């Protein structure tokens, strides 16, 4: 079970890309450079990639993927110019495979990144930021890398100083959803990685609600995950939430970047954002007997006799985050 695909519902980058020398016989196809700010690339990296590749996660069994600086270091080791570096990342994220990976040790430890659909422009912005700027790294990484490669330029680039800015309601809602997803995902994927998918089903049954409630308390918000095809009846979407789910289904099917839906009413912000499946999700939410193993199907049937949360494929809306919190005083 330890080689199941690991990464989150949510989550971005990789363990690596093509093997080969730093130059190739064929020139890479040009990759268009985007007119974007470094702050935008940094924010995308932190919201998309750090769900799994967070540099602050300790090494005591809690890490579910290598830190982003390790990804950057391996790509710089293979691609010295920016165009090839960006192209390499974009190609891997589009179609991860063991044949392409350069980080075989990481794949053995964590599993291969599941196939997910990300807007191409967002991947490019993240890749450009990685190449141009230094990023946060764990205290242990420099010594780890130098012992093995001896290359002190593994995290080269300019230093970006970002002044603190008061968060908008949209940013607050995204933070609440992503932080909660990170807590749930870290525990869920750790259970799959260290035990089994069957054990992960038990974890969701016993621990998902208490963990979500603790995050609600932490953020002084009401945080829920709801669906039109719930596994637990308590996660059934109401009429308004069902309408938002249908809206997100159309947007995800059309491709491109997805924006949250927000409403403000009586001093409260109502925030909605889709939960989109990746290949890891199909271990419990795919097709019984095909992507869901027989013993897992039996366990699900015992715990959830009215389970509706199966039959999904990758890149489908399985539900939404439904979050309510106090509106900032100057949000209007």
From TrEMBL:
Pfam families: Cytochrom_C, Tll0287-like. Keywords: Heme, Iron, Metal-binding. InterPro entries: Cyt_c-like_dom, Cyt_c-like_dom_sf, Tll0287-like_dom. Residues 36-134 form the Cytochrome c domain. One of its GO terms (molecular function) is heme binding. The keyword Nucleus does not apply. The keyword Heme applies. This is DUF3365 domain-containing protein. The lineage of its organism: Bacteria, Pseudomonadati, Bacteroidota, Flavobacteriia, Flavobacteriales.
């Amino acid at each position: 079970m330890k080689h199941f695909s690991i990464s989150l519902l949510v989550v971005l980058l990789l363990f690596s890309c093509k093997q080969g020398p730093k130059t190739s016989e064929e020139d890479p196809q040009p990759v268009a450079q985007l007119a974007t700010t470094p702050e935008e690339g940094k924010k995308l990296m932190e919201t998309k990639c750090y769900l799994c590749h967070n540099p602050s996660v300790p090494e005591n069994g809690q890490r579910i993927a290598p830190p982003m600086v390790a990804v950057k270091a391996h790509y710089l080791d293979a691609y010295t110019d920016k165009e090839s570096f960006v192209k390499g990342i974009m190609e891997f994220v589009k179609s991860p495979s063991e044949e392409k990976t350069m980080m075989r040790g990481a794949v053995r430890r964590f599993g291969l990144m599941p196939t997910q659909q990300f807007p191409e422009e967002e991947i490019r912005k993240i890749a450009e930021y990685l190449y141009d700027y230094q990023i946060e790294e764990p205290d242990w990484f420099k010594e780890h890398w130098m012992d093995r490669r001896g290359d002190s330029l593994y995290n080269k680039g300019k230093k970006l100083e970002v002044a603190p800015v008061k968060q908008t309601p949209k940013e607050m809602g995204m933070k609440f959803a992503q932080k909660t997803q990170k807590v749930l995902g870290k525990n869920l994927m750790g259970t799959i990685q260290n035990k089994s998918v069957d054990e992960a089903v038990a974890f969701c049954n016993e621990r998902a609600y208490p963990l979500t409630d603790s995050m609600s308390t932490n953020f002084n918000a009401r945080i829920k995950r709801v669906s039109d095809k719930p596994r637990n009846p308590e996660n059934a979407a109401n009429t308004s939430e069902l309408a938002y789910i249908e809206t997100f289904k159309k947007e995800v099917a059309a491709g491109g970047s997805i924006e949250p839906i927000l409403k403000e009413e009586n001093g409260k912000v109502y925030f909605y954002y889709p939960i989109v499946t990746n290949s890891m999700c199909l271990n419990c939410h795919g097709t019984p007997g095909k992507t869901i193993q027989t013993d897992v199907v039996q366990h699900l049937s015992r715990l959830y006799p009215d389970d509706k949360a199966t039959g999904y494929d990758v890149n489908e809306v399985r539900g939404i985050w439904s979050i309510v919190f106090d509106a900032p005083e100057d949000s209007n």
